[in-house]
Amino acid sequence: METASAESVRKHVRVYVTVFVTLMALTLITVAISTLHLGTVAAILVALFIASLKASLVAAYFMHLISEKKLIYAALTLTAVLFLVLMVIPVSHFADRGL
Amino acid sequence: MQIPYTVEPRPDTGVYNAKLGIWLFLASEVMLFGALFSSYVLLRVGATTWPHGYEHLNIPLATVNTVVLITSSVTMVMSWASLALKNLRKFRVYMGATVGLACVFLVIKGFEYAAKFEHGLYPSESTFMAIYFTLTGLHGLHIIGGIVVNCYLLGPGSKMWKTDPARFTNRVEIAGLYWHFVDLVWIFLFPVLYLL
Amino acid sequence: MSEAAPGALAGIRTDHHAPPGFWRTYVFSQDHKTIGIQYAITALLFLLFGFTLMMIMRWQLAYPGQSIPFIGKFFGDANAPDGVMLPEFYNQLGAMHGTIMVFLGVVPLAVGAFGNYVMPLQIGAPDMAFPKLNMMSYWIYFVGGLTMLSSFLIPGGAAASGWTSYAPLSVIATAGQTVWLFGMICLITSSLLGSVNFITTILQLRAKGLSFMRLPFFVWAQLVTSFLLLLAFPPLEAAGVLQLMDRLAGTSFFMPSGLVVSGQPLAYTGGGNPLLWQHLFWFLAHPEVYVLILPAMGIVAEVIANNTRKPLWGYRSMVYATIFLGFMSFVVWAHHMFLTGMGTVISSFFQATTMIISIPSIIILTALFLSLWGGSIRFTTPMLFALAFLPMFGIGGLTGLPLGLAPADIHLHDTYYVIGHFHYVVAPGTLFALFAGVYYWFPKVTGRKMNDTLGRIHFWLSFAFINGVFMPMFIQGLAGVSRRLYDGGAMYSHAQGVMHLNVFMSICAWCLGLAQIPFIFNFFWSIWKGKKVSANYWDATTLEWAAATSPPMAHGNFATTPEVYRGPYEYSPPGNAADFLPQNQPVEAR
Ligand code: HEM
Ligand SMILES: [Cu+2]
After folding, report:
1. What are the distances in angstroms from CA C289 to CA C173, C229, C292?
2. Is residue B14 over pLDDT 50?
3. Which residue, A3, B130, C71, C201, has fewest beta-carbon neighbours within 10 Å?
């Protein structure tokens, strides 16, 4: 990024604006959907899906992850895997306990 | 002897030191909030009853706050882009806006907290309230941290623009990565706490 | 050799406008070597303190209810009226012994001290990537340590819930627990800053030609260790924050409904889960045991390669094993929780992962053993400690296997067998490796070597007594004696047959304390009076020995930036006059 030319930075700026508009729209959509009071499972799935979408947009464009170096991807992949392991904590806690 | 790769990227890894450093730091932050999120799931699944966020919390205020924070993310990235275009004045404007929006976020959050306290809702009220205060409180601390860093870059830190503009631009990029992460955490906290 | 340095010194100092003053040179230094020494001294003092706590406890275990001689009257009536230790005080000593040894002693010494001092030199870097962060991480550690210690002085005393701080007892414990939590948050912050710095340094500042498969094994060990610290500590930080909320804001994250203590219902709303604490704690604490052992393996590998005068056997497999070990350590945490009502499927999963993770440890240990084969071994003092490490760690590791299998663990869980098991890993294991490191790198830091006779006395006495302390613990544990007992088990009939061992173990522990006197004396005496030696005293190949003795204490380690031409352990290369070929020696110069 640090060597970006003026032209490519300007292109970036246009992308930022598009992403911003999308994020706003998604925020309103998720709030709107929440007023429908879907069933628990559906509500969780929809809300988390939209949140992940927004998060990916932020990560990809604002944090430039879309064009990052391999080393950073490697570190983040490791982190993502371990994040999933963290999510195993509740699973391992409740699964197969005969509750 | 100077420490190499503080400004220019190392050829084989393709990044400069601070870029790698901040991503590693963010990785640890992912594990911090991940553990809290995992705790939330465990407690919620184990609970006999769990209120819907909208029964206790103020969704309109939180929506405004979401908008505020996302906007501040955009101004943050614009402040970096302004530096990349060698425009210090614009950088100041955008960075100032970022700090301002961050403060707005905190003020709104303050109103929310105050309203809870007025109704006698403290963290000890229920596990839901406990999780709500802990997560938003920790996130608020991160916001404060970001404000401090950004103020530094806006004020005394910006002297570096004259002596070492490339390094200063890098610093703003690094601060930006942190700030976007704080935004990202909120993007998850908002539905999890308020909408579900 | 220290005379050869001035030219280099002058060349390095030119970058700096003015020589930094006293405070910047010795106290708030940003130089990795100074910080390494600061860590070393602080951590050694903490180790001594933690060990002293244990020597005091061992009196109570050997002679329950008898007045502690000489020092008993200094503890005050709140802790030891008439010199007789109260149960509450015993618990404080035990909890603080564990916490201090792990978080304030071994890890700061292995990572903060050796990692800081040696690693940048071994990769040919002028300093750490972020010198300011490095300084901060030392000072935050220092403050965290003092915070912990200060808790002995507050009403109610120090934390008393064990180093594991299991809820719900820790939540309703005295104020010392709050201090413990604040201390832990400092220590966690410090290691996070440190690990970001270590990883960045290793990945970014390697000298030219130093590819990953040419890194000394010690650097690999530090790299994987840093990843463990970086990614496993935050969940404990989260847990710490939740426990603080429980204690200070009255939340019930770890408090189940309907708790009654001494006939009084507790004022908690309940709805929380005490097992959540255990999950989060062990999510850190299992990787933590590899944080305790990996740097030790790194040191031992360096010392063994150097003193057998041959390349490490199976360097690559050791590296891959280390990486695999690091990763697997994140998926075994629940083997500490077999007795929490876990179902058989989940328990089988964690038993399987636990058996799998033992494989890389065995690979590393086997490779180190095989490295001895056919070597012309020099029995130097560091080598003695490194050699002793191998069987001692072997005992520690092998006795761990039954603990990883649920049927056996039902009997062994929370007995002295467990205490014996992990102490074999961390005391005659890691501690011996750390001693090896002190003897091995002492000449690099000071330009003088430590006395060999005293070193040998230190080694043989420590070796004998440390086994005397920990071997009987297996016997007691198999007989069913629980850990953390105020009277060492005297009130249980099933323990009567093994109670006599307590006196023997305690005497060994005190003698172990006495056996450290030659070391302490040797350490200080050698700083000023030790034999002066050359910059590469051990005829070693890795880059730290290419730097001048006690390299200048400002940024900059090498007179010229080193370049690397070969792997780390080119000992006794065929066709070479000397029996070692340094990594930075160009081929032509042969
Ligand atoms: C070399 C001298 C040492 C001796 C004589 C010693 C002795 C003991 C004994 C007897 C206990 C059990 C106390 C009880 O159950 O009431 C204990 C506990 C413990 N020790 Fe050590 N130890 C030594 C070194 C270390 C080292 C180097 C470490 C860590 C790196 C360590 C970590 C621990 C931990 C974590 C516990 C458990 C504390 C708890 O129950 O919460 N010890 N030690
Ligand atoms: Cu374990």
Report:
1. 26, 11, 5
2. yes
3. A3
Structure tokens at C308: 């057998």
**What is the predicted pLDDT for the residue at C577?**
87
For residue C359, the cross-strand partners are: none
- Residues of chain C with confidence (pLDDT) below 50: 1-16, 589-590
Closest CA to C551 of C27, C13, C137: C13
- So what's the pLDDT on residue C207? 94
Min Cα–Cα distance to chain C from A87, Å: 11
pLDDT digits (tens, 9 = 90+) for B75-91: 999 999 999 999 999 99
pLDDT (0 to 100) of residue C1? 32
Q: Any residues with CB less than 8 A from the CB of A84 and at least 6 apart, and which?
A: none
CA C58 to ligand 1: nearest atom: 10
Contact B17, B5 (CB under 8 A): yes
B4, part of any domain: no
Q: How many CB atoms lie within 10 A of CB C514?
A: 10
Q: Would you call A92 an interface residue with chain C, using a CB distance cutoff of 8 Å?
A: yes
Q: Which residue of A has its CA nearest to C196?
A: A75
Amino acid, res. B78? M
User: Are C114 and C43 contacting, i.e. CB atoms less than 8 angstroms apart?
Assistant: no
Q: Into how many domains does chain B fold?
A: 1
- C-alpha span between C153 and C76 (Å, rounded): 11
CA-based nearest distance A45→chain B, Å? 10
Total CB pairs under 8 A between chain A and B: 135
CA–CA separation, C105 and C113 (whole Å): 10
ipTM: 0.96
For residue B97, is pLDDT > 90?
A: yes
Cα of C81 from ligand 1 centre, angstroms: 25
Specify whether the CB–CB gap between C120 and C127 falls below 8 A: yes
Please give the CATH superfamily to which domain C33-253+271-546 belongs.
Cytochrome c oxidase-like, subunit I domain (1.20.210.10)
The answer to whether C138 touches C187, Cβ cutoff 8 Å, is no
CB contact under 8 A, C555 and B3: yes
User: Residue B44 belongs to what domain range?
Assistant: 17-48+56-195
The token duo for C417 is 């067998």
Q: Model pTM?
A: 0.94
In this structure, the dihedral spanned by the alpha carbons of residues C210, C212, C218 and C222, taken in order and rounded to 10 degrees, is 120
Chain B nearest C-alpha distance from A31 (Å): 7
Helices (H) and strands (E) in chain A, counts: 3, 0
Tokens 């070990």 found at: C325
Rounded to 5 degrees, φ, ψ at C260 are -125, 125
* Domain membership flag for residue B167: yes
Per-residue model confidence (pLDDT) at position A38: 87
Whole-number Å distance, alpha carbon C432 to ligand 2 midpoint, is 21
- Looking at residue C9, its pLDDT comes to 37
Neighbours of C493 (CB within 10 A): 7
Q: What is the CATH number of the domain that holds B170?
A: 1.20.120.80
The two tokens of residue C20 are: 């930094």
The pocket around ligand 1, CB under 6 angstroms, is made up of C 51, 54, 94-95, 97-98, 101-102, 106, 162-164, 292, 419, 423, 426-427, 431, 469, 483-484, 509
Mean pLDDT of B44-67: 92
Mean pLDDT of chain B: 95
Residue B1 included in any domain: no
Preferred mutation among C206, C251, C284, C564 to probe B, highest tally of B CBs within 10 A: C251
Q: Which of C97, C184, C425 to mutate to test the pocket of ligand 1 (most atoms within 8 A of CB)?
A: C97
- Predicted pLDDT of residue C13: 38
CA-based nearest residue to A62, from C452, C82, C175, B173: B173
Looking at A3-7, B135-139, C150-154, C479-483, which range is the least confident one?
A3-7
> Is residue B77 assigned to a domain?
yes
Q: Of C147, C132, C61, C141, which Cα lies nearest the Cα of C106?
A: C141
Contact list in A for residue C343 (CB cut-off 8 A) is 95-98
